[in-house]
Amino acid sequence: MAVELxxxxxxxxxxxxxxxxxxxxxxxxxEQVGEVKxxxxxxxxxxxxxxxxxxxxxxxxxxxGVPPQLIEDILRRTMxxxxxxxxxxxxxxxxxxxxxxxxxxxRGQLGKLFARMFELSGYQVKILGSQDxxxxxxxxxxxxxxxxxxxxxxxxxxxxxxxxxxxxxxLCDLTSVKSAPLQAMxxxxxxxxxxxxxxxxxxxxxxxxxxxxxxxxxxxxxYQWLLDQFAIWGxxxxxxxxxxxxxxxxxxxxxxxxxxxxYGLHLRQENPDLSxxxxxxxxxxxxxxxxxxxxxGQDPHLYGDIILSSADNIEMIKRFHRRFGEALQLLxxxxxxxFVEQFSQTSAWFGDYSAQFMAESQNLLKQANDxxxxx
Length: 375
Hints:
Subcellular location: Cytoplasm
Strand content: 5-15%
Largest sheet: 7 strands, mixed
Protein name: T-protein
Strand order of the largest sheet: 2-1-3-4-5-6-7
Order of helices and strands: HHHEHEHEHEHEEHEHHHHHHH
CATH architecture of the largest domain: 3-Layer(aba) Sandwich
Pathway: Amino-acid biosynthesis; L-tyrosine biosynthesis; (4-hydroxyphenyl)pyruvate from prephenate (NAD(+) route): step 1/1; Metabolic intermediate biosynthesis; prephenate biosynthesis; prephenate from chorismate: step 1/1
Pfam family, one: PDH_C
Structural class: alpha/beta
Family: In the C-terminal section; belongs to the prephenate/arogenate dehydrogenase family.
Number of domains: 3
């Protein structure tokens, strides 16, 4: 048996080495693709091409007796690495005549990311940090684009200091709340204004498939090239008005971050053995625990600012607290029929999204389980 297994494992090792060689060849080809895209100003993410390629590979896998999901998983992971490699090739500059891009707060993590993306696209980038305001007039005098990316609680005050921009300069911000910053920019600057919210953190390897929300302020025709530049970087653009954005963020960000915060506090005070919890965890609970732990591995000031950024957030959290209490009353009353009724009504409200979310979560859980090292 040992000899037979050794022989088969040697063959597996040989195939694995061939796979590595082919992956290296694929990445080298992707690098060439990135250079062509850069020259011609094509987005690094082409959703139609990706969908068609995956469909074709799944069909071919089926004919070979290979599970279609297996080849899709391999290709999606390979493409993620490919998008990061393509980024290093740089990007076509859509506005080569633009005067300097000034990133206010450009020494912060998100500011550094966007400064680098503009530099990779051939723009002249200047940084206006907290220690540079004595030289602000000189930095801003020839600005063609000013990007404000500072902590939420500082954003309005910083925008108020930008009253002497050139008339044709584009002013934008990257804040996770939009109504107040957008109005402040419109008040302080008479030129083109757009509110932006990158729906990702500064640790992304690439902007491919990442969402950038944009809220129109003024002069869409003058800042349209900026949105097009984001698209070339691979970003997916989501237009929305500022008020709708902020209502959505109350649920997507403020409430979700607060519930993770509260759950983390509860765990700390219950004081379980985390290593034991992980050993006992199914992939879904491990993933949930990871998302809570992820929150506490980041800047508390950032999340405090997000949650406390508006009274609407606090009111939403209060409503959640009340409904949590109502749900708890069902348990205290041992009201299983009431629980089932509420469950069914909520399931009906989710409708077809329940099946979609089930499929998406199953894929995530498979990946999470693959990454677990037991024993």
